[in-house]
Amino acid sequence: MISVDRLDHLVLTVADVERALDFYENILGMEPVTFQEERRAVRFGQQTIKLHAASELVDPTATHPVPGSANLCLVTGDALGDVQEHLRANDVRIEAGPVVRTGTNGPITSLYLRDPDGNLIEIARYDDPEMGPEQ
Questions:
Q1: Residue 15 lies in a domain
Q2: SS3 state at 73
Q3: Is residue 133 in some structural domain?
Q4: Domain-embedded: residue 97
Q5: What is the CATH number of the domain that holds 35?
Q6: How far is CA 14 from CA 107, 119, 124, 125, in A?
Q7: Among 11, 98, 103, 134, which is 20 to 30 Å from 127 by CA?
Q8: 37 in active site
Q9: Cβ neighbours of residue 64 under 8 Å, at least 6 residues apart?
Q10: pLDDT digits over 81-124, tens only?
Q11: Using an 8 Å Cβ cutoff, are 120 and 112 in contact?
């Protein structure tokens, strides 16, 4: 058996890399990065989301990579009221929330929205800060 320690990065297949970069940088506050062969990604914490254009897939890839098929839960330390205000100020529609859910480390309260490709993005805050992502 092997032992997996953590998630390093994930790949999103997107229709337009620049449009996705703009959303993740300006709406979700992630840092855009460029790496080998001019590939693009966004970084937050110690994780990276690599953005691959559906028209220029990188081998190897998923069996059926299509834009809009992901469902991600991202954890924030910000008050969800502040997140809601930021989303509304940037004309980002909130699909659902705030709603109570269960995160990896305990109860969370979440907002749901969609990125430009239709991926479902959950922005969550741990109800008990002691149970946040560092636990």
A1: yes
A2: strand
A3: no
A4: yes
A5: 3.10.180.10
A6: 31, 9, 23, 26
A7: 11
A8: no
A9: none
A10: 999 999 999 999 999 999 999 999 999 999 999 999 999 999 99
A11: yes
Cα(38)–Cα(18) distance, integer angstroms: 12
**Number of domain units in the chain:** 1
Asked if 98 and 112 touch (Cβ cutoff 8 Å), the reply is: no
Dihedral of alpha carbons 53, 73, 79, 87, sign: positive
Domain hosting residue 77, numbered range: 9-126
Phi, psi (rounded to 5 degrees) for 74: -115, 135
Query: Does residue 18 carry a pLDDT above 60?
Result: yes
Nearest Cα to Cα of residue 15 among 59, 49, 57:
57
From the candidates 37, 85, 122, 134, which is the catalytic residue?
A: 122
User: Does some domain include residue 16?
Assistant: yes
